[in-house]
Amino acid sequence: MWCELEQENFFSEFQMEGVSAENNAIYLELTSENLSRALKTAQNARVLKIKLTNKHFPCLTVSIELLSVSSSSRVVTHDIPVKVIPRKLWKDLQEPTVPDADVSIYLPVLKTMKSIVEKMKNISNHLIIEANLNGELNLKIETELVCVTTHFKDLENPPLASENASQDRNSEQMAEVHIDIRKLLQFLAGQQVNPTKATCNIVKNKIVHFDLLHEDVSLQYFIPALS
């Protein structure tokens, strides 16, 4: 998974000094649950500050100013342990590259997909996703006893993807990928907001790449094909 947040869309003040002028970045590793738990207490915050601190060990300090009933404020502080990743390992943490997709298609409503995939999971651990350049997307499971397919029609294909692929590809021809249904469900179950756009990019028999855009957040999710 790869998520990007533009800092100017979230923070009114932002100060950061990286390792050097050429490498103006800091890479941190932390337990996401700890950060999530800290931010949940900030839902009604007047001010939220996040700082990298050193309290005998590196911490991400989340300082939350809350208004009380008497209109006086109180500050809640969370110190989240982090691991500072050395520069020699940065090359392993770059945005994943994706080969050119055979088919790109906009997804239907994610809640609808989640409901369908949850039912399919009771039949098989494997799922086939297939789509074409004619706005059609199918979710299929095949076992020795049963074959179940859910069809989505009249979806749209991203214009650029359609133009690039249509030169040498029949618009009716399906591109498919076999994946672990549990990984797809993990992706669908983790969506707390409805994205403004959700794209599915299929590289035949290799990978399915989901790209979600929601206002100021970009979220990419990669599921490799089963061998």
Short description:
The protein is an alpha+beta fold and 227 residues long.
What would the principal axes of the Cα set say about the shape?
elongated
CATH fold assignment of the largest domain: Proliferating Cell Nuclear Antigen
CATH architecture of the largest domain: Box
Straight-line distance between termini: 20 Å
SS strand fraction: 35-45%
Number of strands: 14
Uncertain runs = none
What does this entry look like structurally?
The chain is α+β, with helices and mostly antiparallel strands and 227 residues long. The protein has two domains: 2-8 and 24-92, no CATH class; 103-159 and 170-224, Box (Proliferating Cell Nuclear Antigen), CATH 3.70.10.10. It has helices at 32-40, 110-120, 159-166, 181-189, and strands spanning 2-5, 28-29, 45-54, 58-67, 73-81, 83-84, 103-106, 126-131, 137-142, 147-152, 175-180, 197-203, 207-214, 217-224. α2 runs antiparallel to α4 (181-189). The mean pLDDT is 88.
